[in-house]
Amino acid sequence: MSSRPDLHLQLEQGLAALDLALPAEAIGRLLDYQALLERWNSAYNLTAVRDPAGMVTRHLLDSLAILPYVEGASLADLGTGPGLPGIPLAIAAPGRDVLLVDSNGKKVRFLREAIRSLKLEGVRAVQSRVEDVQGQFNCITARAFASLADMLTLGGHLLAPDGTWLAMKGRSADDELHGIPAGFGLRGRHALQVPGLAAERQVLVLGRT
Fold first, then answer.
1. Sheet containing 201-208: which strands, arranged edge to edge?
2. Residue 184 confidence (pLDDT)
3. 105-109-112-117 Cα dihedral, nearest 10 degrees
4. Helix pair angle (4-17, 26-44), 10° resolution
5. 30-33: long-range contacts, CB 8 A cutoff, minimum separation 24
6. Is-contact 194 61, C-beta < 8 A?
């Protein structure tokens, strides 16, 4: 098992590799979130990743790799699960209104406890199907939640007219691009080098046309 100092060093080195400078208290709060997730995971099975060092790589650093592409005053994280990438993004760049959306009750209970115990201001969790959520957001994040076609069909109404949709994907998602619904288009794609993760990662940046 990795000790907290080990995880702190791993996270610091990972952030340096990503060239991210976070607020002074962010690393401690990110590790508080990881510890809370680890504790709840043993009872509620919120994530398949059990190892603390693996959580730092696969959850914290993987989420934070898209931070340079997040913009605007409000963010909705769809199919957030235990808060990924929404909670790491909220800790790393506070001051944004963040809505965490998941249909799974036990995951939303965890999210509400995380928001309360980590004192995450401006962050809310809602148990809902994506298509039933109301409102419009400057930025929408979705991590392995569905195909691009399904994501945008179910959640496209949530994207503000000039908003940015960040779809986190693994290997090439070329076969999904033809399924993008009318009214939306691909603005860019960026390969993500997640420190410690051998798997291919990329973020597709979409918007209204």
1. 123-127, 97-102, 74-78, 137-143, 159-169, 201-208, 184-192
2. 98
3. -160
4. 120
5. 30/60, 30/88, 30/91, 30/92, 31/4, 31/7, 32/117, 32/118, 33/60, 33/83, 33/87, 33/88, 33/91, 33/114, 33/118
6. yes
Q: Is the pTM of this model over 0.90?
A: yes
> What's the longest Cα–Cα distance across the chain?
49
Which token pair is 192? 């993500």
Model confidence at 118, pLDDT cuts 50, 70, 90, reads very high
Type of residue numbered 121: E
> Which CATH class name applies to 4-208?
alpha beta
The Cα 12–Cα 29 span in angstroms is 13
| CA distance between the termini of the chain | 49
Average pLDDT over residues 106-134: 98
Q: Residue 73: which residues within 8 A CB-CB, separation 6 or more?
A: 96, 97, 138
Domain ranges within the chain, ordered by starting residue: 4-208
